[in-house]
Specification:
- The complex is a heterodimer of chains A (about 280) and B (about 280).
- Chain A has about 280 residues and is mainly alpha-helical.
- Chain A is built from twelve helices and no strands.
- Chain A has one domain (about 5-270): ABC transporter involved in vitamin B12 uptake, BtuC, CATH 1.10.3470.
- In chain A, helix 6 runs antiparallel to helix 8 and helix 9 packs across helix 10.
- The longest helix of chain A has 30 residues, at about 125-155.
- Chain B has helices at about 45-55, 90-95, 100-110, 125-140, 155-175, 185-190, 205-210, 215-220, 260, 270-275; strands at about 10-15, 20-30, 35-40, 60-65, 70-75, 145-150, 175-180, 195, 200-205.
- Chain B has a six-stranded mixed sheet, with helices on both faces.
- The relative contact order of chain B is 0.15.
- Classes of the chains: A mainly alpha (about 280), B alpha/beta (about 280).
Chain lengths: ~280, ~280
C-alpha cells in the first residue's frame, strides 16, 4: 500500500493536519498568526543548514525553528517585539535570508518550488514515520500542558497568580510549534504552513461549542482539506500544497454558511456535561 | 507588622521599569481573615503592588513572600478573549482547576450569575463578567482572594451586594482578601486595613484613620475626608510631563469634573475608569 506515492502523500498529509489543527487553534486564540509565519519562513534557514552540514532536513529545520522560536519569545517578553511591523520585518527577512543562503550553495541543486510550496508527492516512508512519531509526541505534550497554556491564553496574569507557570507552558508551546513546522514543511512548504495551522482552526470556530471541541474539529477539518486538496490536485493536475490550502479555504467559506450552527448545538450537547 | 501567620507579605518592595519606579518601598501584609484594600489614583501602582504580592512580577528591590502552598483566587482587571475562542462561562469556571457541576453552579449562584452558566464569555456585560470572574475565584476555595477593581461595571446596588458577599466569604472561608479599588466609599466600610498608594505608601490604617489622614486628603481632595459625608472620588489629575502624578494640589480640579475625560489615564484600565465615571459623585 505504501508503494503508491499518492497513498503515502495522503497518509503523511492527514498526519500533519491532525497535529496542525489543535496547535493552530492556540495560534489563532493567542493572535500569533504572524508569529507562526515568521517561524515557518525561518525554516528555510534550517534547510540551508541541513544542506551545508549534510544532516537530516527535518531535524535541522526543527532545531533552527526551536532556536528562533525561543529567540522571538525572549524578544517579545522584553517588549521590543510588540509591533506588527517588527514581526513582518523579521518574517520576510528570514525568508529572504534563507533564499540567499540557499543560492550561495551552488554545489547543490535545490527544488525551491518544493521548499516554498511543499513536495507532498515525494514523501518517503521515513517521512511518514517522522510525521506520526513527531506528531504523536506533539499532541501528547500539548495534552499535558493544555490547562496552563489555555489559562494563560485567557489571562496570563491569572494563570501566573494561581500557580500554573504560564511561562513554562508558553516556552513548551513554542517548541511544539517549531516541531510542527519541521513536520509540515515537506507537506505544504514554508510559505503555506501558517495556512495549514490557522485556516482549519478558523473554520472550526463556527461549529465549535468549547475550546476542546474546536481543537478536535480543526484537526478533522485539516484532514478533510488534505484529502480534498490531494484528490483535486490529482484530477486537475494542480500543485498539491496550494490545492490543500485552497480546499481548507473552501471549508472555511462553507463554515460561514448559517445552516452549520446546527452542528454546534450537537457539539454543545456532547461536550456539555464534561468538566 | 511582621508576623508568621501572614498569607502574603511585602517588605520594602518596589518595581523599576528602565529608570522609572512604578512603585517603591511598599510594606504590606495580608493575614487570614483580613481584608486589605489598596487605594490610590490611576497610575499609583495599585495593580503593580498586587502583582508583586501574587508573584506575577518580582520586585526589583525588597522582598515578596507568600505562604507555602497558598491557594490564590485572582480576579484580574480584564481578560483578553479573542473572538475565535469559544468559551462559555461553564468552561471558564474550570480554567485553572477542575470543579464538580455543583461547585460550579453554587458559586455562580452566590455571585448572582447562576443564569449565565451557558452564556458565552464574550457576550457578557461588564457587570456580568465581574460576577462570573468572582464566582470562579471563589470556587477555588482560596486562602487568599485578590480582587483588582471587583466592582467595575456594576451598578450601585450590585456593588454593595458584591462587597457584602466578599465580607461574607471572608467570614465563612476565613480567607484573606487583597482588594484594589478606586472607589473609596464602599471600600471604607468593608476593609480592615486601607493602604493608600501613590508611587509609595502615602498612609495606612483603619478606614476611618486613613480618611482623616492629611496625605489622603491631599491625594483625593479635601472634601473626600470631610466627615465621610460626601463620598466624592477625586482623581488627582495633574500629570507632570514625565507621566508622574502631581498630588500636591487636589483642589485644582474641584469645579471642573469634565477633566476626567481629557486627562490621560495612566493605567491600561481607561475603559474601566470611564465606566466608573457615572458614579463618581455620590452622597452617602
Amino acid at each position: 500500500m505504501l508503494d503508491d506515492f499518492f497513498t503515502r502523500a495522503l497518509i503523511a498529509g492527514i498526519g500533519a493536519a491532525l497535529v496542525a489543527g489543535p496547535l493552530g487553534c492556540f495560534i489563532v486564540w493567542r493572535r500569533m498568526a504572524y508569529f507562526g509565519d515568521t517561524l515557518s519562513h525561518a525554516a528555510l534557514l534550517g534547510v540551508a543548514l541541513s544542506l551545508l552540514l549534510q544532516i537530516n532536513t527535518t531535524l535541522a529545520v526543527g532545531g533552527v525553528s526551536v532556536l528562533i522560536a525561543v529567540l522571538l519569545m525572549l524578544l517579545r517578553r522584553s517588549n521590543t517585539l510588540s509591533s506588527d511591523a517588527l514581526l513582518g520585518l523579521l518574517s520576510h527577512s528570514a525568508l529572504a535570508l534563507g533564499l540567499v543562503c540557499l543560492a550561495f550553495m551552488t554545489w547543490v541543486r535545490i527544488d525551491l518550488q518544493g521548499l516554498l510550496f511543499g513536495d507532498i508527492l515525494s514523501v518517503t516512508v521515513v517521512d511518514i514515520i517522522m510525521v506520526y512519531a513527531g506528531g504523536a509526541g506533539v499532541l501528547a505534550v500539548l495534552a499535558i500542558i493544555w490547562r496552563p497554556l489555555f489559562a494563560a491564553t485567557v489571562s496570563s496574569d491569572l494563570a501566573a497568580a494561581e500557580g500554573l507557570s504560564p511561562n513554562r507552558a508558553e516556552v513548551i508551546f513554542m517548541v511544539l510549534n517549531a516541531v510542527v513546522i519541521a513536520i509540515a514543511l515537506k507537506i505544504v512548504g514554508a510559505l503555506l504552513i501558517t495556512a495549514l495551522l490557522i485556516i482549519p482552526a478558523a473554520a472550526a470556530r463556527r461549529v465549535a461549542a468549547s475550546p476542546e471541541h474546536m481543537a478536535v474539529m480543526a484537526a478533522l477539518i485539516g484532514a478533510v482539506a488534505v484529502v480534498g486538496g490531494l484528490y483535486s490536485s490529482y484530477y486537475y493536475d494542480t500543485p498539491s500544497g496550494p490545492s490543500i490550502v485552497v480546499a481548507a479555504m473552501g471549508i472555511f467559506i462553507l463554515s460561514l454558511l448559517p445552516g452549520l450552527s446546527a452542528l454546534k448545538w450537537a457539539g454543545s450537547r456532547i461536550k456539555g456535561g464534561r468538566s | 507588622m511582621k508576623s508568621d501567620g501572614n498569607l502574603v507579605e511585602l517588605a520594602r518592595a518596589g518595581i523599576r521599569v528602565n529608570t522609572d519606579w512604578l512603585v517603591r518601598g511598599v510594606d504590606m501584609s495580608v493575614a487570614p481573615g483580613e481584608i486589605v484594600t489598596l487605594i490610590g489614583p490611576n497610575g499609583s501602582g495599585k495593580s503593580t503592588t498586587a502583582k508583586m504580592a501574587l508573584g506575577i512580577l518580582s520586585p526589583t528591590e525588597g522582598t515578596a513572600h507568600r505562604r507555602n502552598a497558598l491557594t490564590v483566587g485572582y480576579v484580574p482587571q480584564k481578560l483578553s478573549i479573542d473572538w475565535t475562542l469559544p468559551l462559555t462561562v461553564r468552561r471558564f469556571m474550570r480554567l485553572t482547576n477542575p470543579l464538580t457541576a455543583d461547585e460550579c453552579s453554587s458559586s455562580l449562584e452566590l455571585t448572582g450569575a447562576g443564569h449565565l452558566i451557558d452564556a458565552s464569555m464574550r457576550h457578557l456585560s461588564g457587570g456580568e463578567l465581574q460576577r462570573v470572574m468572582l464566582a470562579r475565584a471563589i470556587a477555588r476555595r482560596p486562602d487568599l482572594l485578590v480582587l483588582d477593581e471587583p466592582v467595575q461595571g456594576l451598578d450601585y446596588g450590585g456593588e454593595i451586594a458584591i462587597y457584602e458577599l466578599i465580607s461574607e466569604i471572608r467570614r465563612t472561608h476565613g480567607c484573606g482578601v487583597l482588594m484594589i479599588s478606586h472607589d473609596l466609599h464602599v471600600v471604607m466600610a468593608a476593609a480592615d486595613q486601607v493602604v493608600c498608594l501613590n508611587g509609595h505608601v502615602c498612609c495606612r490604617g483603619t478606614p476611618s484613620d486613613v480618611s482623616k489622614h492629611q496625605s489622603y486628603q491631599q491625594l483625593f481632595g479635601a472634601r473626600a475626608g470631610g466627615a465621610l459625608a460626601v463620598y466624592e472620588h477625586h482623581h488627582d489629575h495633574v500629570h507632570l510631563p514625565d507621566g508622574k502624578v502631581q498630588h500636591k494640589d487636589g483642589t485644582t480640579c474641584h469645579d471642573c469634573s469634565g477633566e476626567h475625560h481629557t486627562a490621560p489615564d495612566q493605567e491600561a484600565s481607561s475603559a474601566a475608569g470611564s465606566q466608573n465615571e457615572g458614579r463618581l459623585t455620590r452622597v452617602g
